[in-house]
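Annotators were shown the component list below and the corresponding predicted structure, then asked to write short factual statements about the assembly.
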Amino acid sequence: MNKKGRLIVYSGPSGVGKGTVIKEAMKKEPSLVMSISATTRSPREGEEDGVNYFFITKEQFEKKIEANEMLEYAQYNGNFYGTPKDFVRQKLEEGKNVVLEIEVQGALQIREKMPEALLIFLMPPSFEELKERLVGRHTETKEQIKGRLCAAKREMKEAVKYDFIVINDKVEKASLDIIACVRAASFLERFNHDFINQQNDDNNKQEEILL
Ligand code: 5GP
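Structure shown to annotators:
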């Protein structure tokens, strides 16, 4: 039987390079798959429905919440974003490590509901560097950049609630660090409760035999 996969929550401020780093990590580690979120925001140029997001209306989104089909959801910049349960459940059963690239509010909902999830936060090398990256990509207005930097400050304060912090100085290094975090997670005490309990039961049985 397949070993179940792990749920990996992956966050970081806008402009830090989350997409680039995780794509690189996925090339090297085939057990990683990305979940596809649903959103009420409009597609950007080049984005495809069912590939980047499921683009749905606010009414459709609300129906999904009512039907309890969302693992988590949050409002961000005036739009709804959420993780549909079905895909995640199916991939975990197949033994895949499913990555949710989501913002902080959603990440903390997952922490509450699923303590077995692993939380990784991608940090820029400095705030100055983040600002330069956001300005350099020429996709937002000055006002939007200001808004994103304010949000970034708020989000980076929440990094203390994550299991691992990875710094995106170089994409190659950061992608290897993400893979190292996923592997290291197998050794964390909280992911080994079943094994520890089993060992303790066996130890007790052995003790009974010896006495
Ligand atoms: P964008 O509009 O730039 O694609 O995404 C805006 C923010 O929403 C990003 O921080 C992204 O990680 C987050 N996001 C994307 N999908 C989800 C989701 O399913 N749930 C939550 N909570 N946040 C999401």
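Statements collected:
1. The mean pLDDT is 94.
2. The radius of gyration is 20 Å.
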